[in-house]
Specification:
Layout: H1 20-40, H2 47-63, H3 68-91, E1 95-97, H4 106-122, H5 124-128, H6 130-149, H7 158-173, H8 177-197, E2 200-202, H9 222-257
Helix pairs in contact: 1-2, 1-4, 1-8, 2-4, 3-4, 3-9, 4-8, 6-7, 6-8, 7-8, 8-9
Amino acid sequence: MTFFSLPHFPNPETPAEHRRHDYLIAGFTFVTVTICLTTDGFAPKFMQYVLAFFGWLFLLFFLRSECKYVRTQVAVAVSFAVIGEFFASIYMQGYIYRFGNVPAYVPPGHGLVYLTAVALGRSGLFQNNARKIAAFVVITCGLWAAWGLSNWTQRQDIIGAILFLVFLLYLLKGRSPMVYLGAFFITSWLEIVGTSAGTWAWSVIDPASKLPQGNPPSGVAAWYCLVDAVAIAGAAPLLDLMTKSLNYWRKQTARIDE
């Protein structure tokens, strides 16, 4: 009973406020992810830089309305996710982009995706219906994972089933379950769009574990749970370091002026 106590879920008796900004971020990202990934499925390589320009533009625009802590979280999340992209795609070949690179729009894309997960997680819709949404996500992802293990699918997806169990553990015991729920929706959507458009493709066999995986794996949202854990762990120390560095610089400047 203790295992299913959901200690980090919001109190259902405390209604949350609906903020237009949160829904704007989510709606914008879902639409632009669809446009961006579909475009990159057929456009020439230089278009990736055009998409990257607009990606950074809109990410910075949305971050203007966020507090310093969220901005720092996004910065840490982007850094960690991009390192993970180069390791998993370029080095390990776990999935491969159409041009065999990590597209230029990936860093701001990760920022928008992570910010969307945060925005959805704190939104009134998710806060007021946390357990219902969690039940929907667990059932949906569970059925997806079961499908990947069945004889009906064209590609067996053992990796997806493992990732689903990891995602479930994060959801039950992790510090940011609402962010994980938000991540499930946006990451599942972008994976379905990206793989359907041919923007990237997951290897039939995961190179690390040698186990079969789907295209995409069903529990892919679990990777963003890890990104969030790193963002939370790294945001406070980084923000503290930046604050101390700024104060030191100001003191040194003041001494020079004297």
